[in-house]
Design goal:
This protein is an alpha+beta fold. The chain folds into two domains: about 120 residues, 2-Layer Sandwich (D-amino Acid Aminotransferase, Chain A, domain 1), CATH 3.30.470.10; about 150 residues, D-amino Acid Aminotransferase, Chain A, domain 2 (Alpha-Beta Barrel), CATH 3.20.10. It has seven helices and 16 strands. A six-stranded antiparallel beta sheet has the order 2-1-6-5-3-4. The two termini are about 25 Å apart. About 35% of the residues are buried.
Length: about 280
């Protein structure tokens, strides 16, 4: 099932016009949501990130686009899915309506919701081999647009194909200053001793939901110190531990980068704390 501008229809009936600006120009923003107990987790943070992204792209925000309205649309789609699941993945896409070329005819928007099943209502820790490499073919500009979830993700697509062809679980992206900023599908954290380091938003990394939650958790911990600072590729092999975060998987521990193997203890501890946050609501 999908929801297009408030109308729930079967996937097979869902079509977009070729003049849809999200398709034609990547003129769209999106939020990927994890649904537990029929409700989106970290919904308030998702909502405000979506509103901020729309403002940055100069999209009109409809008066009815309240958190209550959009949450209701999400929950209605979940109820219509027809098969019970421990949790769901919902993608909320907001696109500027058709019209114009690079310059749009208006800033009015439409929206679409899609849904798929997930197999667990909590984040699962994995100790499976997870090897990463740098993707250096294309670089990310360290600016505000790079921190948004938009339909302009060509670097992530090409990088994912590179990873698949070379049998890597993931790759890390570099900005034009040659700093490591994130993984293809999530934010990056390095652990060295009791310091946990993550790139700053000013380097061009995505403003991820789990990234924000973990930053708060680490800042409130007496065991670790958080550092938001640029990361050189040389630091990757000096780290004791590396992990990647996103809203669907939570925390993904890296096991190998080139000839370096990593421990998993900190990521396991933080994942347990993250699951506690989910239980507390």
């Amino acid at each position: 099932m999908v929801n297009i501008d408030g109308k729930i229809i079967q996937n097979s009936e869902a079509f977009i016009n070729l003049s849809n600006r999200g398709f034609a120009y990547g003129d769209a923003v999106f939020e990927t949501l994890k649904i537990i107990g029929n409700k989106p987790i970290f919904w308030e943070a998702h909502y405000f990130r979506l509103m901020a992204s729309m403002r940055i792209l100069r999209m009109d925000i409809p008066m009815h686009f309240t958190p209550e309205f959009l949450q209701s649309e999400i929950e209605t789609l979940v109820r219509s899915f027809g098969r019970p699941s421990p949790s769901y993945r919902v993608k909320l896409t907001v696109y500027r309506k058709a019209g114009g070329f690079y310059t749009p005819d208006s800033n009015a928007v439409g929206y679409a919701l899609t849904i798929s099943e997930l197999n667990s209502d909590i984040y699962q820790f994995s100790e499976d081999d997870y090897e990463i490499e740098l993707f250096k073919d294309y670089l990310i500009s360290p600016n505000l647009l790079s921190t948004l979830k938009t339909n302009n993700k060509a670097v992530n697509v090409v990088g994912s194909i590179f990873a698949k062809e070379n049998k890597y679980a993931n790759c890390l992206l570099l900005n034009t200053n040659k700093h490591v900023i994130e993984a293809l599908n999530g934010n990056l954290f390095l652990v060295q001793g009791n310091v946990i380091k993550t790139p700053p938003l000013s380097d061009g990394c995505l403003k991820g939901m789990v990234r924000e939650v973990l930053i708060d958790l680490v800042k409130s911990s007496s065991d670790f110190t958080l550092e938001e600072a640029s990361i050189s590729p040389f630091e990757l092999q000096k780290a004791d531990e590396i992990f990647i975060t996103n809203i669907i998987s939570g925390i993904i521990p890296v096991t190998t980068y080139r000839k370096k193997s990593y421990t998993l203890e900190v990521s396991k501890t933080l994942l347990n704390q993250l699951n506690t946050c989910l239980r507390l609501g």
